[in-house]
């Protein structure tokens, strides 16, 4: 079966949001992530910073070595989530078959809906126009007959690009003389194994299929198929099935032994995760605590039961899980949510019983607060405990 797939990728998303909100940053090498004196990595950076060799996931120390005159900032998850919510709604207005890869990237299967909007190209250009109008940000759009072709198309004209790869022949002609790394799933180790046998380009791979199979076994056939333009993966709508999960974590600049401080971190992470799933009208049945000790040992603790989506409920669960782990210096802490459901169906307890008026009042208030956070960012409303937690982190950074 032939598919029509659109891939949308926001351009330098975090950095673009910061430039939008502070025009004085325009044209400057902007690096979002840890600060130069901290332990951490680059989350993303502006195109001006990329000219100096800075890239995502690079050690912040290496980024500073390459670009010491850059502007370094911590990410603002609330602002990025609010912007993401807007363009995700734009995508969903064209098809319900959307796979959200991250806050700023996704695949849309418009095979069944393209005709209703005048074709895939019109949808792609409309997405670019609406995204610019409604968020002030640019995106790159690729249209293809498969997921890999759509992804490659969106990368072809970045930033603010638009490109189409209509069929397998067009794909092969585009990538035939490019490095094998352009194929989906070919990482550094796989590329090194192929290059050690003289297979550097896609053309080399197609001309030496038997050698590829010798080196990579069954995986080799998969890459041969991709090089020939065959990719049968399907767009999987976000949160389809209980295997889907989301998580947030933080790595500390110094190993932490103060468990009250760790609970402050969990409180802020719980709020961010709560906003993400509440924006989508979802509830989580499983909450997971992630802890990495200073010896790099990683442990997780999970609790499944009644569904939750409020920050306090999520926090209460992970805080109780934290009380069960060994009290040793901790380097990283995080929260994961999984087992998503779209409706709050659960068995009521005595604590839940109240008047209908009280229930309606609580639901109305929650919707109002969520709309404010959606419009102005999650940081617009903070509980007293969240304010105290943020104050502790600011004092720690200043100290």
Describe it for me?
The structure is a single chain. With 399 residues, the protein is of the alpha+beta class. The chain has four domains: 5-10 and 80-170, Alpha-Beta Plaits; 13-77, MutS, DNA mismatch repair protein, domain I; 179-227, DNA polymerase, domain 1, CATH 1.10.150; 245-398, DNA polymerase, Y-family, little finger domain (Dna Ligase, domain 1). The protein contains 15 helices and twelve strands. The chain has helices at 13-21, 47-50, 60-66, 77-92, 120-135, 147-156, 168-175, 188-195, 202-207, 209-216, 218-227, 259-279, 311-322, 356-376, 384-398; strands at 5-10, 30-33, 42-45, 71-73, 98-102, 105-109, 139-144, 162-165, 245-256, 283-293, 298-308, 330-341. The strands form three sheets. The chain has a five-stranded mixed β-sheet with strand order 5-6-1-7-8. A four-stranded antiparallel β-sheet has the order 9-12-10-11, with helices on one face. It is globular and about 60 Å long. The model is unreliable at 239-243, 344-370 and 372-384 (pLDDT under 50).
Task: Kindly summarize this structure in a few lines.
With 399 residues, the protein is an alpha+beta fold. The chain has helices at 13-21, 47-50, 60-66, 77-92, 120-135, 147-156, 168-175, 188-195, 202-207, 209-216, 218-227, 259-279, 311-322, 356-376, 384-398, and strands at 5-10, 30-33, 42-45, 71-73, 98-102, 105-109, 139-144, 162-165, 245-256, 283-293, 298-308, 330-341.
């Amino acid at each position: 079966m032939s598919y029509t797939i659109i891939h949308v990728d926001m351009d330098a998303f975090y950095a673009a949001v910061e430039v939008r909100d502070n025009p004085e940053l325009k044209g400057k090498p902007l690096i979002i992530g840890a600060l130069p004196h901290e332990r951490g990595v680059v989350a993303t950076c502006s195109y001006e910073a990329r000219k100096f060799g800075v890239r995502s996931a690079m050690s912040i120390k290496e980024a500073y070595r390459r670009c010491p005159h850059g502007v370094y900032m911590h990410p603002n998850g609330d602002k990025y989530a609010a912007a993401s919510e807007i363009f995700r709604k734009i995508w969903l207005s064209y098809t319900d078959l959307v796979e959200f890869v991250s806050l700023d990237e996704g695949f849309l299967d418009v095979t069944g809906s393209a005709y209703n909007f005048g074709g895939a190209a019109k949808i792609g250009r409309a997405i670019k126009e609406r995204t610019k109008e409604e968020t002030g940000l640019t995106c790159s759009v690729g249209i293809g007959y498969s997921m890999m072709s759509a992804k490659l198309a969106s990368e072809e004209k970045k930033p603010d690009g638009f490109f189409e790869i209509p069929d397998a022949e067009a794909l092969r002609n585009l990538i035939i003389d490019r490095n094998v790394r352009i194929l989906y799933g070919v990482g550094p180790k796989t590329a090194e194994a192929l290059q050690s046998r003289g297979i550097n380009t896609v053309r080399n791979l197609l001309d030496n299929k038997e050698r590829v199979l010798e080196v990579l076994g069954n995986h080799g056939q998969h890459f041969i198929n991709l090089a020939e333009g065959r990719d049968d993966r399907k767009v999987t709508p976000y949160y389809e099935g209980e295997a889907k999960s989301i998580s947030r974590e933080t790595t500390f600049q110094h190993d932490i032994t103060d468990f009250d401080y760790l609970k402050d971190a969990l409180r802020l992470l719980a709020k961010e995760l709560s906003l993400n799933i509440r924006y989508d009208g979802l509830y989580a049945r499983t909450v997971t605590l992630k802890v990495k000790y200073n010896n790099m040992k990683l442990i997780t603790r999970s609790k499944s039961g009644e569904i939750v989506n409020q920050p306090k409920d999520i926090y209460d669960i992970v805080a109780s899980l934290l009380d069960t782990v060994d009290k040793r210096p901790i380097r990283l802490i995080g929260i994961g949510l999984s087992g998503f459901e779209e409706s709050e169906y659960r068995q009521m307890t005595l604590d839940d019983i109240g008047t209908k008026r009280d229930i309606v009042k609580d639901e109305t208030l929650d919707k109002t607060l969520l709309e404010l956070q959606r419009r102005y960012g999650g940081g617009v409303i903070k509980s007293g405990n969240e304010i105290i937690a943020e104050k502790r982190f600011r004092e720690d950074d200043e100290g």
